[in-house]
Write a structure and sequence with these properties.
Layout (H helix, E strand, L loop, with lengths): L1 E5 L14 H14 L3 E6 L12 E5 L7 H16 L8 E4 L6 H7 L4 E5 L17 E3 L2 H11 L3 E3 L21 E4 L8 H11 L3 E4 L8 H13 L3 E5 L3 H10 L2 E4 L11 H8 L4 E4 L4 H4 L6 E4 L2 H9 L8 H8 L4 H16 L4
Amino acid sequence: MHIVLISSGALPVMPLGYGGLEQVVGDLAICLAKSGHEVTVICPDESGIEGFNNNIRTIKCGPCNPNAREWEAQAYQKYAPILLSPDYKDAVVHDNTWAKGIYLLKKDHPRLNVMSTLHGMLPYQTPPPVAKPCMAGISKHHAGTMEAGLKIPVKFVYNGIDLSKYAFPEGYMKTRRYLFLARMTPFKGADVFVDLMRSIQGDGDLVGDDIMVEDQAFVENLKQACRSYPGVKYWGGVSRSAAVDFFQNAHCYILPCNKGWQEPFGLSVVEAMACGCAVVATRSGAIPELIIEGVTGFVVNTTQDLQDVLKGDKISTIKPSDCRKRAEEFSREAMCKNYLSLYEDVLNGGW
């Protein structure tokens, strides 16, 4: 099978540091190529995903741009005519962008085999302008939200990770430090984490990208809060290897999403569990689909519930080996297998 993966342009494929959508696209491309499929990745100039027995090619569409939609609009002008060439006649085109430009091409050229995955909360008011858009979410909850909003059938495939990058050392002695690792945005709850540490007089690490965020004033307030309560150390963005170190060392990983945010998947939750790190997270979107209550962590409803879990040291009841076992269900190989099933559905008429 020939599969074309369209990435967004905020980060390269693979990301040099810690990334989300672009990392998922890269891992999917690698697994598809290892399975013997021909893969073309549409991506920024800085990407370095070529190779794997020559099964991965790239169409590079300009340098990375923090304004992803701007990059996507410019990239569309380059890749659209290429996808109409005979070389791509039988390919499945899998759009992972935010703008979903592939549907404009599909509208004018119905013969194209296309599907798309949305990697965030639903930003669209109407469905794509084609008969069978073949859209996918990244969790059961996420797909349900998309179906309700767009009034079309939506399937889903869980994101997967390269488990080899998330070492799980048996018998490793963890610290008593708590960890927040996500983008420094209000909806991920970085401010809630700092307040939580202050309320229990705990020690913690605040880690995550603070460049590609909507509100730099919020970031500055976080830094000030950490200066006011030195029990929390502010780190900002780190490399993927450094993120693994944080997950391995943390007493537990805390994701206190604010109300109004529905987590589409929660890649960091799986990454934490892969390192044997228990997770405590607020009930948000797909979070309950990932955490096995009382086995790999706890899903809570309020900040008071968060405090109760930590003060009662319920984390000490969680076995790191159980966390790793759960994470292994979300491997990039499993993701690849499930997407291949959707690609077959696309070729057989779509949904």
